[in-house]
Amino acid sequence: MKTEIVNKEELRKLFLEGLPLAEIAKKLGSTYGSIRTMIYHERQRKPHEWPLRINYPGKSAEPPLMMHLYECQDCALDFAVEDYEDADHSATVCPICHSDEYLQERGYGQFTVTSAPLREVT
Questions:
Q1: Distances, alpha carbon 40 to alpha carbons 17, 47, 90, 112, 114, in Å
Q2: Among the four 15, 19, 92, 106, which has the fewest Cβ within 10 Å?
Q3: How many CB atoms are closer than 10 A to CB 17?
Q4: In what side-by-side order are the strands of the sheet with 77-82?
């Protein structure tokens, strides 16, 4: 079994450019499955550097809106905060209780709008 050596910096660059995984694999001399597995493991280690990519027809040409998802365990509230270059997330507080004492970061990724109907909370 041949061990593949893939330049992870080049992999990340191509990934962030939005190239399909099959094309990335071809450029890096690897296989689709190996590239997908490497991205999965890198995303587990550094989720901020490996955002989820969403491909769908009519995808906007605008850069994606990246968000941090937080949960206030005291208020039972989930909310998202936009991420941009000068954002200071150390100042993030719950919009209900105005405290950061019970905040937990729950994820990071690309914000998307869907046409799915809203669900009633019971």
A1: 17, 9, 27, 21, 25
A2: 106
A3: 9
A4: 77-82, 65-72, 103-111
Segment 99-114, tens digit of pLDDT: 999 999 888 887 766 5
Angle at 114 between CA 116 and CA 56, to 5 degrees: 120
pLDDT tens, 16-52?
Answer: 888 888 899 999 988 988 998 999 899 888 888 888 7
Q: Compute the distance between CA of residue 95 and CA of residue 76 in angstroms, rounded to an integer.
A: 12
Tokens of residue 9, six digits: 């910096």
Exposure string for 109-119, b = 16+ CB within 10 A, e = fewer: beeeeeeeeee
Cα 60 from Cα 37, distance rounded (Å): 27
CA 122, CA 119: separation in Å to the nearest integer? 9
Q: How far apart, in whole angstroms, are the C-alpha atoms of residue 19 and residue 25?
A: 10
Q: What is the DSSP letter of 75?
A: T
